[in-house]
Fold this sequence. Notes:
Layout: H1 4-8, H2 12-31, H3 49-119, H4 144-166, H5 171-183, H6 186-202, H7 223-241, H8 245-251, H9 253-270, H10 284-312, H11 318-345, H12 352-375, H13 379-385
Helix pairs in contact: 2-3, 2-10, 2-11, 2-12, 3-4, 3-7, 3-10, 3-11, 6-7, 6-10, 8-10, 9-10, 11-12
Amino acid sequence: MTTDIDRFERLHGLDALRGGALLMGVVLHASMSFFPTQVWIVADDQRSVWASGLFFVIHLFRMATFFLIAGLFAHALVQRRGLSGFVVNRLIRIAGPLVVFWPLTMAGIIAVVIWIGVRMNLTAADAPPPPAFTAASFPLTHLWFLWVLLIFYAGFLGLRLLFAVLDRSGGWGRGVDRVTAGLIGPWGAFILGTPLALALWLHPNWIAFFGIPTPDAGLVPNTPALVGFGLAFGLGVLLDRRRDLLGRIQRWTPAYLALALGAGAAAMAAAGGPTPQLTPLTDPQTKALAAAAFGLGVYASVFAVVGLALTFFGGHSPARRYFADASYWIYIVHLPLVMAAQVWVQTLAWPWPVKLALVVGGVLVVSVASYELIIRHSFMGRWLNGRRVPWRRDRPPALSPAE
């Protein structure tokens, strides 16, 4: 069992991994314009299966990893601040940015779409129909993860309250802790992957290449997203109760990596290879194989990257802490910037890796600069990151011995 010191100790490796998962969203979206098959509003003149392969690898584990870490930190925050403090904190730092930045994000995306239309000499008649702002089709854009987080927070608090009422002696909690321990090992990826595989197999019109369907349209997330990300979030909550199990995850990292590579390769093969197939799987056997491979691959890769982060990034690093803090802002603002950069390099006759590096590098420069100048040292730093870092002040002159 963890001690109070263990529970409240800052986990630098997971902090860095959370920031990395958000920053990888920049690479993920930037790669989409270079797919061999057009899946994105911006289609570059240079295409490659390596770009779609890069997307596939990142997409396999990125958001499930983020939700696992979010669950762990959510439980730690409740333990530290109490129920009311948790609710206030999440409303300010999650619900607030969603409400404030969603319309700004939509405006930025619409502006880039108009720019694309002007470059292509399109008329208003050629424009796609505007999104329908209904509960079933509301365009959450890439900020969907904030909305889903709020749903998971509500479910977490509800279950926690129910558990507190029914488990006054603590016996159920000890039983849950033993179950959590039983999930930590290569077999845990199979156990957790089974419900996700079933949800994917039952999901109508599932396009296997994209794994867990992104719940970016509609206020009710699709079932595979609720199952896949919800299990990851719940496991994170349980791991905060048993932080000693993080060491066991580290020890199993090589096995998790082997499972992730094997299952990921099988999932890509079942999905049709690195070139995205935009038609749903119809053959039941192929669909079942793809769903099983994705279910196993998602959780094996999550465990693997958690183990790697704890192993290699467990110590304090000012640079990693800076980018972990900045990653939230970077993710909020990155999508319109990525789209604009993709349009800018679209017709350049340069190799796609160079253009991808330009898009990612340019977006990071702009977003990090805006974070440093606008966010980090102002009230917005306290709003988004929970703290405002004052501008560095000159040190007072040292006193001479005589003084």
